């Protein structure tokens, strides 16, 4: 296999700098959209439809779909649920299609359209994801959703975790990949403790979602890789 | 003093996310523009005029000014010099005004206009810069020039070094500040060795500027803080 590029785009605001037409884009929004998408797909959700706006989500109101809308960390009034992973348990999502809009994650997914393939990453499926990436000939772009276009530490750490797991494969890394892997190595012994020093963590604590946070930092709870198929995120069929 | 914000903008492409009207912006382009500006001002340059384009630099051709133009790491043909720090020694610049355009650094300076104050940082003046920042009531935004709007490691490391030196002052850090300080702590024992693993470093090696690189990583060779006064970077008068 030729030497592939493995790059890290630290926020969607930098995505225009990357040529990702032939790449696999891994969308990352650890707290909590992509963690919940991985968990929901693992738990039997038929599909998750990422939409950009609350209005677009609302337009599915009279369908059989579940509607999930989060803004600024909270469930939008009138919606079934937001992006807490505990809303994506088997009892709630098995066999269902969910329409989802979030502050950062679904925005990043939509910006990635045009990539060779768009997949969803989180600590929950990190090893399954990396094992699959290794088998693919494509360059890889890890797209951190960030927080309102600013860089955040949890998405950066996950990108670094992927770099760490792929490193033996001899990808060509960019500076962001080198930096995030070093941060991941610093933090990996206790991701939650490391992230406690961020301001983001204080904000999330105010939202009362510490259990969500702890859950989203579990490695390898799931094996599914959500992949975008048209408008729908579905479970990738692995050979 | 109230609790000040200390934020790190990892590339000029993210500057629009920050409200810096009341802030001190520290412009950072370690390889090599801001290192050379610090060195030139320390060595008696009367002023350095940062301009955006080679054409703007050319327009000063028939003045008494020295003309410095760099693009893609090389001196532009027909110009006195580019951004090698060794062009900014006392014998060459004492008492002179230099008009300078570079790939990344002068772009970042120009984008920062509108800040309360714009100053120039590099490892060469890091302690002098931080000692001065401590005395100022303003929020601080560390602006990494990056490489063509992408994040680079050397500018990020310097930002982390500033965070490290200011940390006892109880600034409020953002996630980029936390991340870059951790990277600086990893790298500080041997900055040059740490940076050797970057792809940027390979590119710079091809340019034959390893001596420049090594020089730009020296701490506290200078004490001057270049500050933008109208169109000119001049030596800040410290009390």
CATH superfamily of chain A: ComB-like
| First and last CA, distance of chain A | 19 Å
Spatial order of strands in the largest sheet of chain A = 7-2-8-1-9
CATH names the topology of chain A as putative 2-phosphosulfolactate phosphatase
DSSP helical segment count of chain A: 10
What is the N-to-C order of secondary-structure elements of chain A (H for helix, E for strand)? EEHEHEEHEHEHEHEHHHHEE
Task: Say what oligomer this is.
Answer: homodimer
Number of domains of chain A: 1
Give unreliable regions of chain A as ranges. Answer: none
Structural class of chain A: alpha/beta
Largest interface: A-B, 26 and 26 residues
Count of strand segments of chain A: 11
CATH class of chain A: Alpha Beta
The portion of residues forming beta strands of chain A comes to 15-25%
The CATH architecture of chain A comes to Alpha-Beta Complex
Overall pLDDT score of chain A:
94
Outline of chain A: globular
